[in-house]
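Hi there,

I know you've been waiting on this one. I reran it after we fixed the sequence typo, so this is the corrected version. Both the input and the resulting structure follow.
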Amino acid sequence: MGTACTQSGTRPEPTPPETSGFTVPAGFAVTLYAEGFKKPRLMTVASNGDVLLSDTEAGTVYVLPDRNRDGKADSKEVYASGLNQPHGLAIQGGFLYVANTDGVVRFPYAAGDTKASGTAQAVVALPAGGGHSTRTVVFGPDGRMYVSAGSTCNVCEETDPRRAAVWVYDADGKNGRLFASGLRNAVGLEWSGGQLYATNNGRDQLGNDIPPEAFWGVTDGGFYGWPYCYPTQAGQPQVWDSNFGKRTAATCTGAAPALGLTTAHSAPLGLAFYTGTTFPAAYKGQMFVALHGSWNRTEKSGYKVITVNPQTGQTADFLTGFLKGDAVAGRPVDLAVARDGALLLTDDGAGKVWRIQAR
């Protein structure tokens, strides 16, 4: 249908795309993909386009199919329930891997499955609970399994080397070893171009602006500073945490510089590299990061989605609007690229999954 002209002969302004109350760059729309969850956290997308989602509070993994491709989940299928705080999800070698708080389990899986065909198979045991209780699992291009677990505390020397670290295992859980240390709470893990990237939540109780939150390119054997050091500038040496006061400033010479930084206490969680074809070309290969939002900062920080240039570390706002004045309308957690090129975003404050598409 054509657009009618006004009496003056000029065309009216086009109707702006739906944004569901969010602010996004011109040409993008934000719509609801699914809702009614308790604490929706991390996602993975199957080869047929089905979205698998962990609900940590419900102890459930859901399948959210969109078989009619209308941009909304057709249904919420309970794939597995009764899990112990499920969080990270990964599909590899005919299995769905689920990172519970006390270990990684797996189920036989084929694209299109909406219910687990059997009971969970234990793969790796992990220390349960603690100050940071979520676990994340991803697979690298080497076919091995990478698992992160956060610290038990704000700042301390851990006795269990699996804490505040990333470990690597064979797909069956054997031959595990420390891959990277000094990551206080690396909730977001993602591979891109043969490089593992991570988000990290820095320590608290040093004021509103110290330390900034960091993003990292993680390498085998790397040390990322915590609890002795923290970054203050991207690409520059870390500084010694004199407030904690353990070891000496010399320790920080071995701490890897941060790829990029954002505001202190903004709590970067999930990340995704844009691999679709429907966003403008400038977004191809960019890192999208969900900032969950601060809980202990005088002026709230985070509560948005940003982009991070993986070459320069430069950041830019992409989606805002979770803060309505001083009120919190939701809390972004994780991002995933859907089969149709849209970007999906979990929100554990509102119990929803949002869909961001280019018009």
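Quick highlight: Confidence is low (pLDDT under 50) at residues 1-15.

Best,
R. S.
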